[in-house]
Amino acid sequence: MNAAGRDPVDEEGFPSSSAQLPHEEEEEEEEEEEEEDEGSFAAEFYRCGSDWSCLLPPEKKRKQANLLEIWGLNSNINNDNNPNPSNKAKKPKQANLWQMWGLNNPSTDKVSNNNKTTNPPPPPPPTTTTPRACPFYKKIPGTPFTVDAFRYGAVQGCTAYFLTHFHYDHYGGLTKAWFHGPIYCTPLTARLLTLCLSLNSSFIHPLELDTEYVIDGVRVTLLDANHCPGAALIHFRLPNGQCYLHTGDFRASKLMQSYPLLLHHRVNVLYLDTTYCNPNYRFPSKEDVLSYIVRVTKISLKKQPKTLIVVGAYSIGKECVYLAISKALGVKIYANAARRRVLHSFNWPDLSSNLSTEAKDTSLHVLPISSLRFEILTDYLNNYRNQYAAILAFRPTGWTYSNKVGTELDLIKPNSRGSITIYGVPYSEHSSFTELREFVKFLKPDKIIPTVNVWNPTNRDKMESYFREWLKGERR
Description:
Layout: H1 43-46, H2 67-71, H3 97-100, E1 111-113, E2 116-118, E3 139-140, E4 145-147, E5 160-162, H4 168-171, E6 183-185, H5 187-197, E7 204-206, E8 212-215, E9 218-224, E10 232-237, E11 243-246, H6 260-264, E12 269-272, H7 286-303, E13 307-313, H8 319-329, E14 333-334, H9 337-344, H10 349-352, E15 355-356, E16 364-368, H11 374-382, E17 390-396, E18 415-417, E19 420-425, H12 433-443, E20 447-450, H13 457-471
Parallel strand pairs: 4-5, 5-6, 6-7, 11-12, 12-20, 13-16, 13-17, 14-15, 17-19
Antiparallel strand pairs: 1-2, 3-4, 8-9, 9-10, 10-11, 18-19
Helix pairs in contact: 7-8, 12-13
């Protein structure tokens, strides 16, 4: 953070590399003293709802207080060179708190009491907390709306806060103390806000998928994002006919090309999930990865029937992986009580009916994806040594993808140590590079705003070059 309470940004209003937190969309922007160039990437969006009024000048630098003054001691300490060694040390006195803080006392008033003149009690040190400015790409131009912008508190001029899905890098900033305005999301996400964050339900406004709502004069429709449960694309249609589509996080699919709203309404600006906007990421389909996982599981059980199957997962997401194994093996799914409460809130009968409350009753367990380490899994196996001799674990994430493997999943080499085997499988709930390209070429937007990996100007330039290539001759 700089002195004004902001992270550094570059000339286009995107966070610099030093401001980016790993694995989170930690983006902020800061006002530039010079005018934006007319042709700059963000210039026209700064004119559409960006608010810089909350910026404050940098606070003055405080000086270091003298420690002897803080302790209330005289700096002339007696020693062998003191010409008056017989002088007695003065009795320490209470230091002035303003001196302790290294500040000048702003008050010159004196209070007289019994012929003693003292300063009035000092007030507490001033607070210099400055609200974060909401980045331009989290505001929808021409509307009083923001998307996934909760960590910026009350955004000036915002009357409706939209949440695409219940992952922390999108809902971060929401607590049970939220009071800044109404929150719009899918019904499933709304249930999670109440269940997990204890949000005041009066602020939560669930919107059904594929249903048009009019909010502050804007037509708003939520569409399935093919990401985690409850995730939505948000389509905004303004009174002037302009259309904006915010993808949140999504995995583009052929099915989306049949969405009537996307077929019949031109998208002027696309806010795009660019997590894997890199040609090195060309995942196989989710269906192919699930088939591979089931196949590996069955082969492993033939070799060692006393194998415990473990699937790593986030708080929500990756449910299709352990559901596929459950159905293929005819076994139930064990998850701890906290995860079960979340899973039951989905209201998915196939999932709820297959959850087990007892770990020893099933050979399929779900653990946090961060727990898929040899040391942790070895300890976990020791708890069930009387039932199982080995663990087969799956880490399903696009970050495990390798160009050497590509779509030839049988080339994946697991990591093994003792009786623990861990497979990294490229099961992603974000779009691959090829899926992004196909989606953009279908949609043909006038402009694309990347929302992930924007902290590096080189990354943005590369993404812009991809966008230009995909849109060549594709304008509607």
